[in-house]
Specification:
Blueprint: E1 17-21, E2 27-32, H1 33-42, E3 46-51, E4 58-62, H2 64-81, E5 87-92, H3 98-113, E6 117-123, H4 132-145, E7 150-159, E8 162-169
Parallel strand pairs: 1-4, 5-6
Antiparallel strand pairs: 1-2, 3-4, 6-8, 7-8
C-alpha cells in the first residue's frame, strides 16, 4: 500500500521562498520561508505546506494540531458510515412451530435489510437425521419467504447433522417503477374518440 505524502510543517519546510496564506484566509504573498515561519510563530500558530508542488510552494498559517484533530475526526466519522457486511445466523429445528418460525424469519429479514448476510441452519437431533427432506423443505420455505429482500449465495447443503444455506441482501432498488402485473394499461390520448359517433335524430 502506498503511503500518503507527509505534510511538512514549520522547520521541515526547506525551500527559499513560499507563498503564504494567513490564518484569516487572506493572501500574504511570496516571502522568504524564515519570514513566513516568524509570522506564524508571532501568532502562536504553525506554518503548514498545503501545496508542495506549486512554484513556489504554498503554505498556510494555522493551528496544525487542531487541523490534524479535525482531519482524524472526519475520517472516523466517514468510517462509521461505511457498513461492514457481517454474517448472521438463524438456527431452526425441522419441527419448528409456526410462532418460532415467524419470529426467526423476522430476525432474518431485519438482518438482510441492514445489509448483512444470513446463514440459515436447520439442525437435526437423534433420529430426525433420517428425515432430511423435512429440513430441505424448511430451508426452501425460508428462501421463498425472503426472496423479496435476498438472493441465495450458497445453495442448501448437508453438513453432518445440519442443512445450511447463505442468503445475501439484494441490491437497493434503482427507483425505476415497474409495471405491476394485472394493472390496466394507460389509456392513450384520443382513444375514447376512436369510435364513430351517431348524431341524434339520424338513421343508420
Amino acid at each position: 500500500m502506498s503511503k500518503q505524502p507527509e505534510v511538512r510543517v514549520n522547520e521541515r519546510i526547506r525551500v527559499p521562498q513560499v507563498r503564504v496564506i494567513g490564518d484569516d484566509g487572506q493572501q500574504v504573498g511570496v516571502v522568504p520561508v524564515r519570514e513566513a515561519l516568524a509570522l506564524a510563530q508571532s501568532r502562536g500558530l504553525d506554518l503548514v505546506e498545503v501545496s508542495p508542488t506549486a512554484r513556489p510552494p504554498v503554505c498556510r498559517i494555522m493551528d496544525y494540531g487542531k487541523f490534524k484533530y479535525e482531519q482524524n475526526r472526519r475520517a472516523r466519522k466517514a468510517k462509521k458510515k461505511q457498513h461492514q457486511m457481517q454474517l448472521k445466523e438463524i438456527k431452526m429445528r425441522p419441527k419448528i412451530d409456526d410462532h418460532d418460525y415467524e419470529f426467526k424469519l423476522q430476525h432474518a429479514r431485519t438482518f438482510l435489510l441492514a445489509r448483512d448476510k444470513v446463514k440459515v441452519t436447520v439442525t437435526f437431533r437423534g433420529r430426525e437425521i433420517a428425515h432430511q427432506d423435512i429440513g430441505y423443505k424448511l430451508i426452501q420455505k425460508v428462501i421463498g419467504a425472503l426472496a423479496d429482500v435476498s438472493l441465495v449465495e450458497s445453495t442448501p447443503r448437508s453438513e453432518g447433522r445440519t442443512i445450511t444455506t447463505v442468503l445475501m441482501p439484494k441490491a437497493p432498488k434503482t427507483g425505476i417503477k415497474d409495471h405491476k402485473p394485472g394493472a390496466a394499461p394507460e389509456a392513450k390520448p384520443g382513444a375514447a374518440e376512436a369510435r364513430p359517433r351517431i348524431e341524434a335524430g339520424t338513421k343508420e
